[in-house]
Amino acid sequence: MNHLHPGFALALLLEAFIVLLVLRRWILIEPVSGHAPAIDGLRGFLAFGVFVHHASIWYLFLKTGDWVAPDSRLYTHLGQSTVSLFFMITGFLFYSKVLETKSKPIDWLRLYVSRCLRILPLYLLVMLVGAIVIALIRHSGWVQPMEAPWSEKSLTGLFTAGVTWTLAYEWKFYYALPFLALTMGRVSWKWLVFSAVMLVISGFTKALDIHACAFLGGITAALLGKLPAWGRLSRSGWGSAAALGALLGAVSGFDTAYSVKPLLLLALSFSFIANGAELWGILTANLSRAFGEMTYSLYLLHGPLLFIAFRFAFGFRMVEQLSPVEYWGAVALLVPVLLGLSAFSFKYFEQWFMRRTTEWTTRLRLLSRHVES
Fold first, then answer.
1. CB-based contacts of 323: which residues, under 8 Å, 6+ apart?
2. Which helix or strand (DSSP H or E) is residue 80 part of?
3. What span, in angstroms and rounded, lies between the C-alpha atoms of 338 and 336?
4. Which residues contact 156 (CB under 8 A, 6 or more apart)?
5. Comparing C-alpha atoms, which of 349, 358, 339 is closest to residue 292?
6. I need a surface site. Which of 118, 183, 202, 271 has the fewest CB within 10 A?
7. Long-range contact pairs involving 147-151 (C-beta distance under 8 Å, separation at least 24)
């Protein structure tokens, strides 16, 4: 059996939900109520898809030394389409805030504090652990160094599975929000200056590509949500069918998600989901939405888990010799570990920082007033 058989991905997804059912007995994660519950459920599927995508890449990488997209539309889109949809989610959620500015002005300081506390702590922790692991590999006498061709690759990239590049795009979008808010009303000149400076420093012109267009898909979904007819269609069975059909069209019809036509199909699918297409209740089920709450941890932790398991627990040489069934069996052993780590990370690490948004915002506002006075 080919290692890219769709049955492996489906089996891992089913396993993930079984693990979640058991896991919730020990670590209770309650889905947070929001105005787009279908998006909450979608996120968990997307993050787990990235995990399966990178697991499929590791299989050939260990045999050939080439880190390339899988020779399968399904497994390729499990990584590429999911990233595009993540960008659309960001575009939708934050442009929705922009559209509400006339009735509910944006607290820009709170917004940026919340983004820092949401993204940076876990990112910095993962990078710190990565630095320690890489130092052990390169300099410790009790850990054998990696052999060619693995030694020729970026160890940081292998450790993180390269997912951190998407965070740069997310931040550029956040920096651009004050200018986007100008379309709806006035924005303080201080935040426009901040936005301009940060966009220049971050090199925003390098990010004006197909990935940036994905954010436009989210913005379009937010605008369509203002049309009552679109909302009614999205919430109907026809909306779910159209969302699923457009998604399947992008996955089955194109070798990559990073081109205009599949991106348009993904944007169409997302525009239905963001405005109420629940895929017949799958995306709004409590278990799906709880799955979505741990998305960020799952997204950042799956790369380190794969690297550490293949490098230290199993050993590269042993994994290299596994048949496809044996390999995916080994990956299946990691699913409970990944979901357990992600649930624990979200519940006791991510949320600890997220709950301090108001406290940190207040402190920074008081400090700003003190400096100005």
1. none
2. helix 73-99
3. 5
4. 127, 130, 134
5. 339
6. 183
7. 148/65, 149/65, 150/65, 150/316
Which tokens belong to 37?
A: 């519950």
Of 76, 167, 174, 85, which is closest to residue 126 (Cα–Cα)?
167
> Residue 314 corresponds to which tokens in the numbers above?
């199993």
Q: How far, in Å, CA of 198 to CA of 175, rounded?
A: 6
Amino acid in position 144: Q
pLDDT, one tens digit per residue, over 212-255 is 999 999 999 999 999 999 999 999 999 999 999 999 999 999 99
- Using CA atoms, how far residue 373 sits from 57, 108, 361, in Å, is 56, 21, 18
User: Is 216:234 a contact under the CB 8 Å cutoff?
Assistant: no
- Tell me: cis bond preceding 149? Omega within 30 of 0 counts: yes
Under 8 Å between Cβ of 6 and 325: no
Q: What is the pTM of this model?
A: 0.95
Closest of 158, 145, 147, 182 to residue 54, by C-alpha: 158
